[in-house]
Amino acid sequence: MNHSQDTSSRGMPEDRKLYIVDSINDLNRLTLCPAGSQHLLPLQEKIPDVGTNSGNGSHSLFFMGLIIVLIVSLALVSFVIFLIVQTGNKMDDVSRRLTAEGKDIDDLKKINSMIVKRLNQLDAEQN
Predict the structure, then answer these.
(1) pTM of the entire structure?
(2) Which UniProt keywords apply (predicted)?
């Protein structure tokens, strides 16, 4: 019987174990000597403060969550910077192409005007 109590209490914090033992002792006192029940500690004094001793676990969980959020944020910011750089490169390519095409269009206009002039000259010579 003692072995089963040891295995079930291994995962419990020390304060909880003491609270359970005090509760069992109080029950024994009540059953054995009801007149001595006035000396029992109030329930609030026996309950351990959950925030004081088990706070280390919640703090470490909080910090782990914070670290994960920071890593994800860093990855997202890096991805956004990468996209901005890629977009800038694409815009440079497009502006170069437009400039080159603009020069080509100007050249085509000059050639068109020379052809029109030549056709007008040929038409004038025929008349």
Answers:
(1) 0.40
(2) Membrane, Transmembrane, Transmembrane helix
